[in-house]
Amino acid sequence: MQNLQQIYQHAIDNGDLDTAEQALRATLAKVPHDNHMRLNLANFLVQYRSGLGAAELFTENDPDNLFNRAYYLSKAHRSDEAIAQYQRAIDAGLSDAHEAYCNIGSLYRDQHNQDDQAEQAFVKALQLSPGYSAAIINLANLYEDRGFKDKAENLLSQISERDPYYPQALCRLAGLGVNEAINRALHQQLRQQSLDPETRCDMLYAIGHQWDKLGEYDHAKRAFDAANQLNQQLIPSFDNTAWQARLDETLAGVNTKDLSPVSDETVFFICGMFRSGSTLLEQMLAAHPDIAAGGELTFFPQLAAKRFEDTVSELTKYRAQLQSARQSKRLVSDKRNDNIWHIDLIKALFPNAKIFITDRNSDDCALSIYQQRLGPSMNYACDMTHIKQYESHCEALREHWLQKYPGDVLIISYEDIISEPQKTISTALNHLGRSWNDACLGFQKLRNTVKTASVWQVRQPLNDRSIGRAKNYLKG
Predict the structure, then answer these.
(1) Cα(413)–Cα(80) distance, integer angstroms
(2) Which of 254, 256, 305, 408 has the most CB atoms lying inside 10 A of its own CB?
(3) Does the pLDDT at position 264 exceed 90?
(4) Where in the chain is the domain with CATH 3.40.50.300?
(5) Parallel, antiparallel, or unpaired for β 267-272 and 331-335?
(6) pLDDT tens by residue, 377-408
(7) Residue 182 and residue 169: Cα distance in Å, rounded?
């Protein structure tokens, strides 16, 4: 056993994944009922191979194995199967059923975009375990995304200072508005030596936003700089050469010969740089009586990443998501910023689709990105130089799509929305074959789900506070 562990460690240190996997499997074969060893192999497979391979390690139908199978199926993006396995584990008498319900809720939110079902699952988790902090955090996030600030605050305030989730609750509370007591608590927590790097990073971003809202830009800049320096250690390194290669491949045209076009006139797409006004555009259009907001759907990024074993089946699920969001309205949006990389795929499947690409002042957009903790796939976000390089790639894509799909692609400027809202949104509506409706100016009244850092900005009437923000940080 000890020899196999040494072989495994040596193989990992040298990047020999095949030998490392063989050592883990050989170890498990010696102790087939050792759940700890099985989990070690499963976690290795998730990190280096596939979640599906990890799920296949858990074949028994007792509650714990069903739970683990569900967890790793979710890592393989097999959300329907994962939800079914979680439910089987609950029905089989899982002792920690509240955890399963919380995970089900997260799957409904993140992979299905079905927030009603997610809310029911989080509420069920809290009924079974009223102080379960993971469910409190998730349900509070859902309420926040729906614009129910009071509900979110009330939930988050239930998490005590002794709870491991307390720092996360502080960060979420800080995101709901300026609060001197919260700011003081954030600084106190930040001094804790035992704080893990992920939480410390979130707290630095939260402190930066508190200082920014107070107009203390020097303090804010120091916090954001520290947050991004730490975040760079936690995510893959930015490689502009790789991004340039991806751009060249996209401009050359991706292979779409295996995709059959769908006759669907109901969906349109909003994409562009992150923090460029895409959520505002979607909300203003969704205030129109003929249009619904579909939100950020993952179908095309997953299609581009070749994560689907059965594209036709996944396309059917995607269209069902769109129909669920559209309900009785005529049109529905798919607002996913990184779809700017996937427009060839979009047009291959939906040849008549209309596409909006949002644009914003380069410095303001870059600053706004720098002040958010985005995911590992957006590793350009931690450095202003890297952000500018990524911006240049998006600018090249924007010009390319304008030329390749004239008449179907329309650029919408954030600054134009703010300065001339009726004229700009009328142009967007005309692109969709719709006429102006005064309800579009009352977009802040919508109570749909908004999964974005702009959640509270789009709950307010139009204002110009975000225009020219970069000057507060670039001066001198």
Answers:
(1) 38
(2) 408
(3) no
(4) 240-474
(5) parallel
(6) 999 999 999 999 999 999 999 999 999 999 99
(7) 10
